[in-house]
Structure formats: structure tokens, C-alpha cells
Amino acid sequence: MAGIKCNNCGANIPSGAAFCPGCGAPKPQAQPAQQYAAQPTRKASMGMQKVSPMAGLFDMGFSKTGIILGVAIGILLAWIGVLIATFSAQNGDIATFLSATGFALMGFALVAGGVWNRKIDTRARLGMVGIGGYILTVGLAVTTSIWGNIFPTGF
To answer: Are 4 and 27 in contact (CB under 8 A)?
Structure first.
């Protein structure tokens, strides 16, 4: 059986020796074989499967905090659009575009969170997908209908 490698010079230290024969450094404590960290898994219907790095991003983005943050930013955009529409007669299309984009963001956060986040109750997830789908559809419909008025030449 091979000895332990010296941390100082890299020489093999025999199992019975207390010091390195090459440089005289004390023998390092025997380390148990390193175990590789288990990769996170997601319970699948057919057992366990490995989770990709993108799944970790989705878990973080569509956690309860991520969903609440997405909805909050959507509400903020919608309110900015309402304030612009209220106090400026010239920027009606931009105000409508901002409001509709805010609603689309809220809908996306609800739908994606309802589909991805399995820690939430099934009925709540179903409600999130249904309501979020409706909000997303209306937001995208209004956004795309007003797009030509804001950007007449396109990109």
C-alpha cells in the first residue's frame, strides 16, 4: 500500500514513518478519501434525476421571493404608466405601453412561478397559471397593438 504524499515536497511518506524522508516535514494527518458533493436532485416521477445548472437558476428566479419581486416590478411599471397617462396628455401611447408591459411581466411571473415552483400548493399553482395566463395574454395583446404607434418604423 502506498504511503501518504508530503504536503511540503510531494514525496511519498511510508505508512510507519512520522516524518517525510525527503524534507523532514511532519507527516500530515491521514485524510479520509474526499467524497464528491452530491449534486442536487429533483424528484422525478421515475426516481431521481440530476438537476442542470439552468434548473438552479429557475429555482432561484421562480422561488416565492422571485415571483413576488416579478409581480411587484410589474405593478410598479403599471402604476408608472397610469401616472404618465394621468398627468401627461401627450404620452398616452407610452403610458399604455408601460402599463401593458407591467401587466405582461406580472402574468409571466405568475405563470412561470406556478409551472416551475413545486413547493407551492397545487391548487395555488393552478390559480397562478390561470390568472397569470389571462394577465399575460391581455398585457401582450395591448403591448403589441400599441407597438406600431410608439415605434412606427420598427427596429
So the answer is: yes
Domain count, the chain: 2
For 76-109, write each residue's pLDDT tens digit: 998 998 888 888 777 778 888 888 889 999 999 9
Helix 53-61, helix 92-116: angle, nearest 10: 120
Collapse the DSSP code of 45 into the 3-class scheme (helix H, G, I; strand E, B; otherwise coil) and give the result.
Answer: coil
Name the residue with cell 442542470: 52
| Residue 109: inside a domain | yes
Q: What is the pTM of this model?
A: 0.57
Taking a C-beta distance cutoff of 8 angstroms, is the pair 20, 6 a contact?
yes
Whether residue 13 sits in one domain with residue 85: no
Residue in 104, 105, 107 with CA at minimum distance from that of residue 129:
107
Q: Mind listing the pLDDT tens digit for each residue in 24-56?
A: 888 877 655 554 455 455 554 445 556 677 777
Residue 54, C-alpha cell as written in the block:
439552468
Secondary structure class of 130 (helix, strand, coil): helix
71 burial type by CB count under 10 A (0-12 exposed, 13-18 middle, 19+ buried): buried
